[in-house]
Amino acid sequence: MRLVWFRNDLRCHGHTPLTQALAGGDAVTALHILCPDQWDAHGVAPARRWFVLHSLLELGESLAARGVDLHVLDGGDFDGSVTALENFVAEQGVTEVFCNREYPLNELNRDRAVARRLEAQGVRIHGFDDGVLVPPRALHTGKGTPYTVFTAYKKRWDVWMDDLQPEAVPAPDWPGGQGRFVGRDRVERALETLSVPDSVTALWHPGEDTARGQLKDFVEQHLGDYKARRDFPAEPGTSGLSAALSAGTLAPLDAYLAARPALQDAKAREGAATWIGELAWRDFYRQIMHRFPSLATGAPFRPETALLQWSDNEEHFQAWCEGRTGYPLVDAAMRQLVQTGWMHNRLRMLTAMFLTKHLFIDWRKGERFFMAHLVDGDFAANNGGWQWSASTGTDAAPYFRIFNPISQSQKFDPDGHFIRHWLPELASLTKRDIHDPAALGGLFAPSGYPRPIVDLSRSRERALSAFKDLNAREVPA
């Protein structure tokens, strides 16, 4: 018996372990192990749990319709999942396990424990890298070290992809007939424990079928304009596929292959290249997480930044969380996150810089808050993005690069459409005044909207001073 162990790869297409397992002619069964306690420990958002569980329901039905059983067990946490898998393998007479690799530290430790136990029983494990386009240990600098600067990494990444010219994973050789979805009730019970607002469930549509249709629509209708439109949060300029990629209802390779032909189209080339570049960023952060496991323990990539004395102003942090900073684009972005489980990428950078530079609050608090709300919560990308914004990470923004929320608003939401949508209390303001209502003065400022909680100039200088002092300590006496 061969076993396909599904994790964050909840799909039938573009799934190498599934295709390989079904190619041998032996009987094949599939397994997914729920780990709600691990989700709790990692602070995974209810919205992401909802998306994953609904995607799992679709996967179970899809596999059963093609003649493959899917079993769902409850392992509790990763330690429990090791025991659950070991027992399942013994009960079912499994001789080979097929799965995709995962790279964060806890996942690596889980998989190492699985390998020790199963290999002691004579069970072979086949690991694959469908979660990335380039495996984390494939690319090295000339010195044999991991890349820590994205631009250099991307050049080698492009060469790898051009040389490889990857093709789609072949469709599985399905056994046919009707399989069983064993544990559907367990998934449904897990869903019943969640409290997810309608504003989230109405916006997101889990599952592989939706992801594949969404990819097709994006490539045909919007890919060519991606570079020109992606930075404007009021426009539908992004693919919206981050949740599907995070849960694995869409394979990164399928996304890449769908976009690659547009590189030969003069009108669509820039948009396609920019979007493919985002897939490369995704790989980059995964190889960083894999090669520097201390990042999974909350450590900054630049160890000297551990000396920064972050502010512990809880009132400022709560104002940021609740969209009450007095800076409209920051507040609109935070309300978008809380109400929909998603935030536009440029606004993720803006809000992260505002928290870490203007409020000078520890990036780890923001990282956890994002993971507690994001439907597309991806540990490596979220950690990488936060450390980039806080200037503590690999390839980080220079400490003196600090987004100004007012000028960012004027540039990327010039007519204030995004702000008006999320901050209706400012809807009556002109497109000139909506970016900085405090400038209207007390008599003219809109009621019900807070005054700015910090002065941008003074708070910027505080952050610059802290980083300058830090850099001075690095110079030998």
Could you characterize the architecture of this molecule?
- This protein is an alpha/beta fold and 477 residues long.
- It has helices spanning 16-22, 36-42, 46-65, 78-92, 105-120, 150-164, 184-192, 198-201, 208-221, 226-229, 242-247, 252-259, 269-291, 314-321, 328-340, 345-358, 363-371, 379-390, 405-412, 417-422, 456-474, and strands spanning 2-6, 28-34, 69-74, 96-100, 124-128, 181-182.
- The protein has a six-stranded parallel sheet with strand order 5-4-1-2-3-6, with helices on both faces.
- Helix 6 (150-164) crosses helix 13.
- The chain is globular.
- The N and C termini lie far apart (66 Å).
- The model has no long low-confidence stretch (mean pLDDT 95).
Which ranges are low-confidence, i.e. pLDDT below 50, for 5 or more consecutive residues? none
Based on CA inertia axes, which overall geometry fits?
Answer: globular
Give me the side-by-side strand order of the main sheet: 5-4-1-2-3-6
Strand content: 5-15%
End-to-end distance, in Å?
66 Å
The largest pleated sheet is described as: 6 strands, parallel
Helix content: 40-55%
Estimated radius of gyration: 24 Å
Give a brief outline of the structure:
The protein is an alpha/beta fold and 477 residues long. It has helices at residues 16-22, 36-42, 46-65, 78-92, 105-120, 150-164, 184-192, 198-201, 208-221, 226-229, 242-247, 252-259, 269-291, 314-321, 328-340, 345-358, 363-371, 379-390, 405-412, 417-422, 456-474, and strands at residues 2-6, 28-34, 69-74, 96-100, 124-128, 181-182. Helix 6 (150-164) crosses helix 13 (269-291).
